[in-house]
């Protein structure tokens, strides 16, 4: 009998973390490495947010809070949902966790029974399927290829729903593709969901504020208010506020669901870091001016990366609407051999050879459920991106 749980055998380590770790090891060994695998802004947390955390420490606000968030933060979240998403929530409908990942995990643990299905549009964030498996559910990936802009179509959603479907996980703008759904595109999806009242919607709106050009963000319960009673609207401060390490995510949803999530959190982690909660109050209530300034840099980086990757042999890189990722396809590179003598049969082969031979770390498409492709995070400096894309271009030019 194995000492480890059988549940653990159903999941795998995060490929993004694995690639980042490998890149760090090569860099520590003296190799010139450019990491484009981690989804983390290179901008520092704004000073007014840091100052709020320091003030909380100095005021002795370092004690336990309620398991799923203190009243001041829940009020700030309610105000944010009303101000930015036209969604009305009361504090009893709000859950605050240690990052968006915990919020998603708690919701799945609180609701899934063996055999329950969760529709996950692919490409997807690598953790979605494994969290479903840990909770005892069945992930149902639904391929959304580049021919549809990496977006879920109403017909595909309709065909995927079964009597066992419990959740649709919806992420816009997307990690890993950056694809964002316009109002009319989302409205068409919500019309399908209205026909299936047993299906709940779990949004991942973490990249809400990272949008470019003329794209306008919207979220399902905002587009179709009739879905509000069965929607968990998830967000957090990690990405737009450059607060990845502060670990604060949150959600608004039905009181019964939030209560069930609170029960799980009270017996696992209990409250998120108190200091991080006070910083997040300031993030949500304070000045938002830095977001637009950061987005100017992100858009410039996006355009740079898209241009340079499209110039590389065998690569096709669409222009995304948001987030800070691109998801180029590499069908023209597979079946070839690198200068280092490695046969590139898969996108994982491509990414491993790219790292070993050029020092550029990206994440292979199979990790996100759709190949052949790879994900680039352009949340780093312009100079690093130029260097990395030049190395990728040279690598592709050397394939035979």
SSE blueprint and pairings:
Layout: H1 15-28, E1 34-35, H2 47-58, H3 71-85, E2 94-97, H4 100-111, E3 117-122, H5 127-134, E4 138-143, H6 154-160, E5 165-171, H7 183-194, E6 200-204, H8 220-223, E7 231-236, E8 249-252, H9 255-266, H10 274-285, H11 289-310, E9 325-326, H12 347-358, E10 360-361, E11 363-364, E12 374-377, H13 382-397
Parallel strand pairs: 1-10, 3-4, 3-5, 5-6, 6-7
Antiparallel strand pairs: 2-8, 7-8, 9-12, 11-12
Summarize this structure briefly.
The protein is an alpha/beta fold and 400 residues long. The protein has helices at 15-28, 47-58, 71-85, 100-111, 127-134, 154-160, 183-194, 220-223, 255-266, 274-285, 289-310, 347-358, 382-397, and strands at residues 34-35, 94-97, 117-122, 138-143, 165-171, 200-204, 231-236, 249-252, 325-326, 360-361, 363-364, 374-377.
What can you see in these coordinates?
This protein is an alpha/beta fold. It folds into two domains: 6-44 and 290-395, Alpha-Beta Complex (Aspartate Aminotransferase, domain 1); 61-285, 3-Layer(aba) Sandwich (Aspartate Aminotransferase, domain 2). The chain has 13 helices and twelve strands. The strands form three sheets. A seven-stranded mixed beta sheet has the order 2-8-7-6-5-3-4, sandwiched between helices. It has a three-stranded antiparallel beta sheet with strand order 9-12-11. Helix 4 (100-111) packs across helix 9 (255-266). The longest helix has 22 residues, at 289-310. The protein is globular. The model has no long low-confidence stretch (mean pLDDT 96). Belongs to the class-I pyridoxal-phosphate-dependent aminotransferase family. Homodimer. Keywords: Aminotransferase, Pyridoxal phosphate, Transferase. Residues 33-392 form the Aminotransferase class I/classII large domain. It catalyses: L-aspartate + 2-oxoglutarate = oxaloacetate + L-glutamate.
